[in-house]
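Worked example (supplementary).
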Amino acid sequence: MPQIYKQSYSEFRPDEYIYAKSKEEVIAILKQYGESARIVGAGITLHEMAVLGFLPHVKKLIDLRNLGLEYVRVEGAQVRIGASTRLREIASNDFFRKDPAFQTVSEAIDSIPLQVANAATLGGNLCSAVPILSMPPVLMALDAELVLTGSKGDRVISINEFYLDYLLTSIQPDEFLSEVRIPTREQAGRNKRASTYLAEKVVAVDYPTLSLTAALSIDKDSKFEEVRIAVGSAGRIPTRLPNTEKSLQGKKFENSTLDKASESAAKEIDPSADLRASPEYRRTLVSYLLKQAVHKCASKIGSGGPR
Amino acid sequence: MDLRFTINGFDTEVEAKAHENLRDVLRRTGFKSVKKGCDVGGCGACTVLVDGKAVYSCCVLAGWAQGKKITTVEGLGSESGTLDSIQESFILSGAAQCGYCTSGFLMISKEILAEKPSATEIEIRKALSGNLCRCTGYAKIVEAIIVASKQQSSSARALAV
Ligand SMILES: Cc1cc2nc3c(=O)[nH]c(=O)nc-3n(C[C@H](O)[C@H](O)[C@H](O)COP(=O)(O)OP(=O)(O)OC[C@H]3O[C@@H](n4cnc5c(N)ncnc54)[C@H](O)[C@@H]3O)c2cc1C
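After joint prediction of all chains, the assembly is encoded as:
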């Protein structure tokens, strides 16, 4: 470990690793210790943050294993996923493998190294609040809801309202994420819907330089119906692209529509420069990935479009 | 804190600090096959199996492994010293040069062979993307896994007859 990292990691010295027995206990610890208590999924983002020196104040680590939050339940109008469910477990569920409308979930997880996806939890991926992770934009494009459990009971919010700024979410100090709900209301028209995840990486094992998820339907006249597009690594928070979505909705699937949409996407993101790419490169990338993603969805739907 | 887990089939109790990662605890307990590489997940040298699944032991906390079943290279093969077929295969294919990455590659190979015995070369390469080798290149490693998977399926056939 380079010296500078060794120094910062040595500041990460929690004094207790707690296997909480109930959600009441979790809430009580969060209330008592505030910022100095942290929930642990697998601890993979926490490790990275400890290395970067972000966690000198953390004193209590809370493990949720005894709360029974590891499950994927495909119910009538929604899929419920427990916050402690490991990513690989989710990706191997037939629902996310086979249904084109929700395949973006397994595609995104398949892009993460096995040694990470085998341990990492969905709750940890979402609550990291780092804009370069894959699952936030994926679940934004699927219009997911988050169940936040706290001293006042459960509150359900849209994932689109969850991210406020870099490393900052709307979760309250005495709350934790217990469940993710994905609506499946479009099931009637299911065979016309598709979703996909695309990401550019500098090397095979890296965080995405840019990731994009598209979830859309195309009607029998080759017109886009509902369109949802979300991006990661494109600004301080993961975000939907409402203008780009509008530029596609109700329009015919043809080159001129795609050109306009990809111009809109390049304008709509607010990327910064980092070691992976310049803002200009990310704008080029988002235009390109948007077109690719729309084509990929269309071919899943079986809808012929422009060549 | 007191940690209890199974390492290579043996119930083990160790003392660990809340901040410690699984790799450091395993090495301290004597499992030196678990290598220290990049320290931030990505090089794969610290790969171990936890409940049968490959995990970077450097970036999970030791507390997370409480009660789980851990397998390291020391647990491959038999007690009498015969090697596991994947180890044999790495030797025969010349899939190691300096050897530093080898234990991580052996452990990820175990998962590949267990989960998808008939994985194609492309699938194998993709599954290996979280492991780095800086000297032999990957051709021999991929070859070793393909050879082991063929052996595995022919011995499975032999048993079925
Ligand atoms: C080499 C490498 C490559 C990677 N590539 C990718 C990639 O391509 N795409 C990608 O998405 N990720 C990637 N990752 C990151 C990885 O997926 C995340 O670090 C992981 O998903 C985090 O999950 P965790 O369970 O370990 O979270 P933890 O580290 O345990 O938790 C993360 C944060 O969330 C909080 N938290 C956890 N659970 C809850 C909860 N239920 N309620 C409230 N707060 C909670 C914790 O307190 C902490 O602040 C990569 C990681 C590595 C090492």
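Two points are worth noting when inspecting this output. The interface with chain A takes residues 1, 17-19, 21, 39-42, 44, 47, 50, 53-56, 58-61, 63-64, 66, 108, 111, 127, 129-130 of chain B (CB under 8 Å). Chain B has a mean pLDDT of 94.
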